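Hi V.,

Quick status before I head out on leave. The structure for the redesign project is tokenized and pasted below; the design run finished overnight.
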């Protein structure tokens, strides 16, 4: 019996082969990312009729658009004629989408406008690009690739009840986006976010700014929340760090209305695309907000190195899985949810 098995009360993390195995990655794609609500974007990206953006998740390309009646739509970016990708730009404003293969054209809601050589647009299931479930919550656009998925507000009842206390959320605008390809499994990046045991060592500025002696972690259905007050501020003013199942984080800092979202998009077993978006209330980013962005970016930079270092360790023979410290219960909570989804 190993020493570890003798230690009472120790709980093991997910086995780390699940962070490198292509088969597990594919299974997660099907059981997690093709079934969960995922943040696709924000209404401030498509303010005018005809505005659209494309979004890739779990190997699927989607178009999110605002049609001529102002309605927001989501559909697969796939031509129903022969399967070609229709829209190749990341964002824009159009009256019509056109497939570059045989020239079929589509309205902004994904419905067929014209198919050359056909004398009708009534082509059954080929009459539109396949629609995707979409819900807007606090101006954030969520999609779900499972047609049978429960409504967003039902899946995230507790989360929405909690976030609704921020009266400014719906009026925020997405002001900046940055992306970073991380050489690590998506779960490793989430793991890193879900504990602050590493903060005193890895994040000196963060540790100075927040009162880590009073760092709290609450667990809820489909989300967890870490929160702490500023060391030299009002104890009422707390930063809140939400993790939302499966791959999204929302941070809200003290001060004028703000939010940052992070999405960890799985690309390969050892590759993830992290998309960071900053939302503020005004048309221009103030000096104070620039400072906040700088602060958040620095903490992230410090984490990238750690997570990429960890991913290398996942392949060693010497180590199969880790253990949770008593303050890593949000990590434990996340792993339980992964296990549940993968059953
Ligand atoms: S594949 Fe799109 S028009 Fe033929
Ligand atoms: Fe960190």
């Amino acid at each position: 019996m190993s020493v570890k098995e003798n230690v009472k009360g120790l709980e093991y993390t997910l086995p780390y082969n699940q962070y490198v195995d292509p088969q597990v990655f594919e299974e997660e794609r099907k059981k997690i990312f093709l079934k969960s609500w995922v943040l696709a974007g924000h209404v401030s990206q498509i303010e005018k009729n005809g505005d659209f953006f494309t979004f890739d998740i779990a190997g699927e390309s989607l178009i999110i658009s605002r049609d001529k009646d102002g309605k927001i739509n989501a559909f697969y970016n796939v031509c129903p004629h022969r399967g070609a990708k229709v829209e190749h730009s990341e964002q824009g404003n159009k009256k019509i989408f056109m497939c570059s293969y045989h020239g079929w054209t589509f309205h902004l809601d994904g419905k067929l406008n014209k198919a050359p050589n056909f004398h009708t647009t009534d082509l059954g299931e080929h009459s539109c690009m396949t629609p995707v479930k979409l819900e807007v919550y606090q101006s954030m656009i969520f999609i779900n690739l499972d047609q049978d998925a429960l409504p967003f507000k039902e899946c995230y009842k507790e989360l929405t009840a909690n976030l609704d206390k921020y009266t400014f959320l719906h009026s925020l605008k997405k002001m900046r986006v940055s992306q970073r390809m991380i050489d690590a499994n998506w779960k490793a990046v989430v793991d890193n976010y879900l504990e602050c045991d590493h903060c005193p060592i890895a994040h000196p500025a963060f540790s100075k700014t927040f009162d880590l002696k009073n760092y709290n972690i609450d667990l809820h259905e489909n989300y967890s929340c870490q929160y702490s007050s500023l060391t030299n501020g009002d104890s009422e003013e707390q930063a809140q760090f939400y993790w939302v199942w499966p791959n999204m984080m929302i941070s809200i800092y003290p001060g004028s209305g703000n939010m940052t979202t992070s999405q960890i998009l799985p690309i390969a077993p050892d590759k993830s695309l992290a998309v960071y978006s900053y939302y503020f209330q005004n048309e221009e980013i103030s000096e104070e907000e620039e400072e906040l962005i700088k602060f958040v970016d620095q903490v992230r930079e410090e984490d990238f190195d750690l997570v990429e270092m960890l991913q290398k360790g996942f392949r060693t023979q010497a180590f199969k899985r880790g253990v949770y410290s008593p303050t890593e219960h949000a990590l434990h909570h996340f792993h339980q949810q992964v296990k549940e989804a993968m059953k």
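Above is the designed sequence. The longest strand covers residues 258-268.

G. will cover questions while I'm gone.

Best,
W.
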